[in-house]
Amino acid sequence: MENDELYRDARVSPVSLTYYAFCLGNGNYTVNLHFAEIMFTDDKTYSSLGRRVFDIYIQRKLVLKDFNIAKEAGGVGKAVIKNFTAVVTAKALEIRLYWAGKGTTTIPFGSVYGPLISAISVDPDFVPPPPTVNGGGLSVGAIVAIVVAGAIIIILIFGILWWKHCFGQKSSVPKELKDINSQTTIFTLRQIRAATNNFDRAFKIGQGGFGPVYKGVLSDGTRIAVKQLSDKSVQGNREFINEIGMISALRHPYLVKLYGFCMEEDQLLLVYEYMENNSLAHALFDGNYDRKTELRLDWQTRQRICVGIAKGLAYLHGESRLKIVHRDIKATNVLLDKDLNPKISDFGLAKLDEQNKTHISTRIAGTYGYIAPEYAMHGYLTDKADVYSFGIVALEIVSGKSNTLTNPTDEFFSLLDWIETLLKIHGATSKLAFPGSSSAIDLTPPHTLHLNANQCPCAIVDPIATTHPYPWQCDHSKNFALVQIETLLKIHGAPSKLAFPGSSSAIDLTPPHTLHLNANQCPCAIVDLIATTHPYPWQCGNTMRILLVF
Q1: In the predicted model, what is the mean pLDDT of residues 15-29?
Q2: 217 forms bridges with which residues in the sheet?
Q3: What pLDDT digit, counting tens, does each position of 381-428 carry?
Q4: In 10 A of CB 198, how many CB atoms?
């Protein structure tokens, strides 16, 4: 390779790389981007299967889409130079390389995907004019006038600050908050007040443990959601710091985006992208009591929401540079955009997962009803605690019932107890009905499940969980899969059966794809609160204990 030293090292990022050049003369420039794929191999081993695909933007315009370094160069370890023309009109140049979610993410190991670049050179396409020299200089009178004017301005500034008692007051904002080094935008309190109409009650869209949440619109038209720290909340201070530190380092389509924060006048505010359809809990449960707020979620939408949450967790647990355990996955912390796509939010309780440790021993935090048993009882925290919480949320999505509601008019105390009761009924038909649909799970002795796979998704969770298989290891083409079932569902004309490993029972797939499942024989039943571990609900294989069918 020519200029071997130039391509020996490279800068890589899981999401984006952005470079700026300032104080340039206006005109046309030739931008030369130097690439060489040095993280994959071509020796027909596992690491040779990696594909790096990203987009290139110059002056915020897409100039090259789906760029694959190895493909363009004709192999790994080979140099390729891409040349572009950039027009500079404001004395500044911006070059951005952005990963749009394509290519591989865990080959040969996590965090090696995303844009990679070895070198950049920028050359003007014109002859720069010679610098101008003022031989005369400033007169003595002009210099004196400038000095006097500057002194007057400084005196005025100090006078205004003294008048406002700025010197004598001590900020109540903790020192650790002032020391936050974040790449997010710092908003002024004036901006936030203008956006929310001075925190008008009509702009309030939610209330959580952190404090109230308001919607607003910035001066540039950007719609935002503002989370306000509760007054005198030490826990809120801690969560504020944690949330900024965690979420500002993460970028993913299924994680809510943090625009910035504000720390003024004892106010601690977090500014997020606005999610038009509020939370998943609002969509699932509020309609049970207020028909005006009800959202109709068809089964395709519920499937998409489950898949989106799973992809977000897969990113947190195995694809981002920071391995993170969220610790508070629940329906209220999953937000829905205008198209009902889910985004995981509220990272105030999140913990870094140290990869060289099997688990983290930590203070118990989270929401009762969603906390994994081994974590609740022993403080034994792994990323699989999030998976248990996801299993509860999946059951809520499927059933339309909350696992934590305590309204005395409800006919159940716990969603898990309710489903377990149905499974134990003998002598009478019981049905787990799905809101907004005529579909149902029919539970008749000896607990045979009849499920129409075209209309109704279902989650069945086993009480004797022993392992936690990972969702992204099941099939590289799908993050959320029972691929065998999906394949067999496409078969028409003759009955097909899918046998479960280690069991004589089977799923009988006959047109129109009705699934018959014997719950006594097949390792699929209900979540057990005494289970010490919880399987990933999207994994298939010999260790499968949870079945999600869509």
Answers
A1: 91
A2: 223
A3: 888 888 888 888 888 887 788 887 655 555 545 677 766 666 665 333
A4: 9
Tell me the two tokens of residue 259: 């625009």
Q: Does the structural domain 281-549 have CATH classification 3.30.360.10?
A: no
Number of C-alpha atoms within 13 angstroms, CB side, residue 285?
19
Q: Which residues are catalytic?
A: 328
Closest among 248, 215, 211, 217 to 229, alpha carbons compared: 211
| Domain 4-124 falls under CATH 2.60.120.430 | yes
- Domain extents in the chain: 4-124, 175-274, 281-549
Residue 188 neighbours by CB under 8 Å, 6+ apart: 262, 264
User: Is the CB of residue 250 less than 8 Å from the CB of residue 322?
Assistant: yes
Instruction: Determine the Cα–Cα distance for residues 262 and 178; give it in Å rounded to an integer.
Output: 11
Lowest mean pLDDT among 15-24, 215-224, 508-517: 508-517
Angle at 386 between CA 382 and CA 390, to 5 degrees: 155
Helix (H) or strand (E) holding 393: helix 384-399
What pLDDT does residue 275 have?
Answer: 92
Question: What average pLDDT score do residues 312-324 get?
Answer: 84
- Alpha-carbon distance of 411 to 540, in angstroms, equals 34
The number of C-alpha atoms within 13 Å of 292 and in the hemisphere containing its C-beta is: 0
Provide the residue type at 146 as one letter.
Answer: I
129 SS3 class: coil
Structure tokens belonging to residue 410: 């409800």
258 or 447, which is more confident: 258
Please indicate, yes or no, whether the overall pTM of this predicted structure exceeds 0.70: no
Q: What is the per-residue DSSP string for 470-531?
A: -GGGTBTTBSS--HHHHHHHT--SS-EEEEPTT-S-EEEEBTTTEEEEETTTSS-----TT-
Amino acid at residue number 546 = I
Closest CA to 259 of 206, 180, 184: 184
* CATH of the domain spanning 175-274: 3.30.200.20
> If you average pLDDT over every residue of the chain, what do you get?
70
Lookup: tokens for 207: 């209330």
**What digits encode the pLDDT tens for the residues 267-298?**
888 899 999 998 898 888 876 544 455 567 88
| Rounded Cα distance, 331 and 228, in Å | 20
